[in-house]
Each structure stands twice: as structure tokens, then as C-alpha cells.
Amino acid sequence: MGQLFTQLQQDLIKLMEEIILTKMTSAPNNQSWFNTSTKCATRRKAQAHKKARHLNTERHWTRFQHLKREAQKICRKAYNEYFTNLVNSDPNSNK
User: Fold this and answer.
1) What is the pLDDT of residue 26?
2) Cβ-count burial 71-95 (b if 16+ within 10 Å, e if not)
3) What's the rounded Cα separation, in Å, for the pair 67 and 65?
4) CA dihedral defined by 48, 53, 59, 61, rounded to 10 degrees?
């Protein structure tokens, strides 16, 4: 009986290792270029989206669209600045 349980346990572990996905992903706000201004813009956009969904008025949806575009611009600018600084940085520095 103990040997049967051990075999079943080993088979289950083997199946779990083969079937269950283990890919690691990272959220956008954990990226090194994601600074305080991008976090703030993203948070404002999320709050505006929540309010627009709840109230469902044209005014709130327009505000959300505006904040969405603004957040996208800020994120793109921060991303581009980070990689520009990374490429143009001094090769002797320990970054």
C-alpha cells in the first residue's frame, strides 16, 4: 500500500512538472524605466477609468481618454529617455 502511494505521488509530481506552466512575467510597473511620474499618470488614468465605468457619462469618458493619452505619452517618454541614457552612458561606470 505504501509503495502504491509513493508511485502515485511520483507520477503526480512528474505530471505537474510537465503540464503546469512556470513562465515568469513582470508587471509593467516593475520595469526600471517606470518612475514616479509614470506611476502617478497610470494611477490617475485607472481612477478615471473606474469613475467613467461607474458613472458612464460622456464627460467622464472624455476625461479618461485624455488621461489615457497623457499617460501613454509619459510612459513612452520615460522609456525612451531610460534607454537613451543607458546607451549613451559612460562605459567605465558601473551601471
Assistant:
1) 66
2) beebbeebeeeeeeeeeeeeeeeee
3) 6
4) 70
Q: Print burial letters for 30-60: b (CB count within 10 Å at least 16), e (below 16).
A: eeebbeeebeebbebbeebbeebeeeeeeeb
d(CA 35, CA 75): 9
- Say if CB 95 and CB 89 are below 8 A apart: yes
So where are the chain's domains?
34-86
Grid cell 508511485 is found at 7
Q: Quick one: how far is CA 86 from the chain centroid? A: 21
Residue type for position 5: F
pLDDT in tens, 30-43: 788 888 999 999 99
